[in-house]
Fold:
Amino acid sequence: MRILIQTVGEARARFRRTSRPSLLIAASLFFAVGGAQAQSGEIRCSVTENSAPARGTVSVTQNGKDVAAGSCGAILSVPAGKCKVTVRLDGTVDNPSQVVDVEVRPGQTAPVTVDFKTGVLEVRIESKAQSGTGLVTVNRGTQRIGTLGSGVAARLSAGKYQVVVRLGGQERRYDVDLRPGQRRLVRAQF
Structure:
């Protein structure tokens, strides 16, 4: 039977030779990681629709580069500094967005809160003489926002719209001023 015996002096000398460089490397890595974390901060996005909680997405750019993106409500880690935060509201025909300038401080959370003003638009095509499928186009100025089917309610940003309804070669136009929280019904009669 062999018994290994090690003296304290040898172990301590070996520890001193191998541990100091390893300890210095470990310490520099630890402080480098801590330094990197101190150079970043967080953004917490919250989005509301007519002052009620809503769902949305967020993207963050810094110096023209995309640095983070995700869902509102989740915390995003971003480099410290000035950022442009773009918040979009989910589930609307016109896909509205708002851009907020934010300064993110190292190790801190910057809140971004955006409220979208929306209304609901529904168009019903009514025809006694003609059957068929009609087409509803929603325009804002000269820009086409989207199309709807008859009887389909859609959420849109509050504002002025022109609704164009086509059925069997005929056309009807309606100017609509949609206010925040308003539910507007347009009856297109042919």
Notes: The CA atoms of residues 6 and 56 lie 66 Å apart. Residues 11-19, 22-37 have pLDDT under 50 and may be disordered. The chain has two domains: 39-116, 118-189.
